[in-house]
Amino acid sequence: MNAKQLTLSGITFIAAVYITLATAYAQVASSSSQTSSNPQVDYQLPYPGMLPDNPLYFLKAFRDNLTAFFLSKPLDKAQFDLLQSDKNVQASYLLTTQEVGKANLAQQTFSKGQENFSEAITQTVAAQKQGYSISEMSKKLDLANQKHQQILKIVEQQDGQKDSQQFQTELGHIKEFAKEIKALH
């Protein structure tokens, strides 16, 4: 094979993987087992698709990283990071409620979601500095943060490790994010 054929084969392979693992934007309600002390937040988390315990998950991660690489506008990056965050939070919920023995993976997935959420806030701030209108995005971030807190409490209850250090750390991140989002307004 010459270099031209090899390059064409590589591009075809990447395109096939990318198209095959196209992002699904279906929305699902996360939980119906809410107590009256935890009012339902009107924010729908997207279906995460493949969960991190799937052996082919690395392909999804590759596709997501490739997509993020090609985004250039900070507001687009913020929206993508928020989507990734929401998917990770929903995946942690599903790992906790539908899978047995996946508590550690659920915690790691939730933590990854919070890293994406932090990046979404950073990109929103960058968009604001560049003169973009961020009012809609800051509202979405606020609702998402509330929903993430709600899901964290559900995951904590399902896990049975109330008041663990990991959950307290994540709750601290959520409260810090709330302050940062409030500063955006």
Reconstruct the topology from this structure.
Elements: H1 3-20, E1 27-28, E2 45-46, H2 57-70, H3 74-98, H4 103-129, H5 135-159, H6 165-184
Antiparallel strand pairs: 1-2
Helix content: 55-70%
Tally the helices: what do you get?
6
Tell me the Rg in angstroms. Answer: 18 Å
Q: Report the count of strand segments.
A: 2
Secondary structure class reads: mainly alpha
- The figure for the number of domains is 1
Low-pLDDT runs of 5+ residues are 23-36
Strand fraction:
under 5%
Strand order of the largest sheet: 1-2
Distance between the termini: 57 Å
Largest sheet, strands/sense/barrel: 2 strands, antiparallel
The helix/strand order is: HEEHHHHH
Integer average pLDDT: 82
